[in-house]
Amino acid sequence: MQIALNDNKAHCTHGGTSGTSTLDSAADYLMWADTTRWREMGTGDYGPMRAMMLGRLNFAGPKLEAMSNMGPFESFLLLVGKVPGDWEVCP
Fold first, then answer.
1. Within-domain flag for 58
2. Of 1, 11, 42, 86, whose CB neighbour count within 10 A is largest?
């Protein structure tokens, strides 16, 4: 997902697959899930670590690096989950 400021509001400008063809295997990672799963993580139904264990959040990249950032990532998802918006409008 890519988000940009438009009229002093955050707007989704792209949702879907990453525009990057290759990841930097030392630092980059890619996570993907169905919209329903992102919503569940954003409302606190479960965190990203549990979602990965249940196969609801897919992952590619350095696992140790990602695991060290799982707490801040979960906090980010919970913060985003509190922001009102329309899940159907992201291109």
1. yes
2. 42
Within 8 A by CB and 6+ apart from 25, the residues are 61, 62
For 72-88, the pLDDT digits (tens) are: 999 999 998 888 877 77
Q: Residue 91 pLDDT more than 60?
A: no
Phi-psi region of 20 (alpha: psi -120 to 50; beta: other; left: phi over 0): beta
Q: How far apart are CA 55 and CA 75, in angstroms?
A: 20
Query: Residue 25 falls within a domain, yes or no?
Result: no
User: How many domains are there within the chain?
Assistant: 1
Within-domain flag for 51: yes
* Residue of higher predicted confidence among 85 and 60: 60
